């Protein structure tokens, strides 16, 4: 199993449409072969203009993805399948202003709410660091992926519960 961690910026509107919610694929007979056997999926992609083809090429099934918007990480997930969608069917069908060919399915989606500085601490980045789409270097991933997921989920739960008054 892979131990890659990817930090991925999101566009909230498109993210809500195809990751936060699953996409029903049963109405689309023209979907790519990689999605032919799926009734539904969570889908995301790497912007073709990002210049990160080599980063996308390193994505493997089971890798951890941390999605963020602004100063907050909003979800964790695992990579399912990756594929090149030469016809841009996925982006043309589901996303606005996000034409792309480098698509991946998202599994084990978990909403979180963790400040950017908290995730930066896990990977030994400065508190104000903003990554862009990237793979975290091996030397910065010092814990098992499930431990990272659990810590982020625990932080979210701890900080979303009403605090007892003293």
What is the secondary structure topology, with strand pairs?
Elements: E1 5-9, H1 12-20, E2 23-24, E3 40-41, E4 43-46, H2 53-57, E5 64-69, E6 72-84, H3 89-94, E7 102-115, H4 116-122, E8 134-135, H5 145-160
Parallel strand pairs: 1-5
Antiparallel strand pairs: 1-8, 2-3, 4-7, 5-6, 6-7
Instruction: Please give the number of β-strands.
Output: 8
Separate helix tally: 5
CATH architecture: Roll
Low-pLDDT segments, ≥5 res = none
Main beta sheet strand tally, sense and closure: 6 strands, mixed
Please state the average pLDDT score. Answer: 91
Organism: Halorubrum alkaliphilum
Protein name: Putative restriction endonuclease
GO molecular function, one term: endonuclease activity
Keywords: Endonuclease, Hydrolase, Nuclease
Entry keywords:
166 residues, alpha+beta, ph1033 like fold, six-stranded mixed beta sheet, 5 helices, 29% strand
Describe the structure.
This is Putative restriction endonuclease. It is a single chain. The chain has 166 residues and is an alpha+beta fold. It has one domain (5-158): ph1033 like domains (ph1033 like fold, Roll). It is built from five helices and eight strands. The strands form two sheets. A six-stranded mixed beta sheet has the order 4-7-6-5-1-8. A two-stranded antiparallel sheet has the order 2-3. Strand 5 (64-69) and strand 6 (72-84) form a beta hairpin. The mean pLDDT is 91.
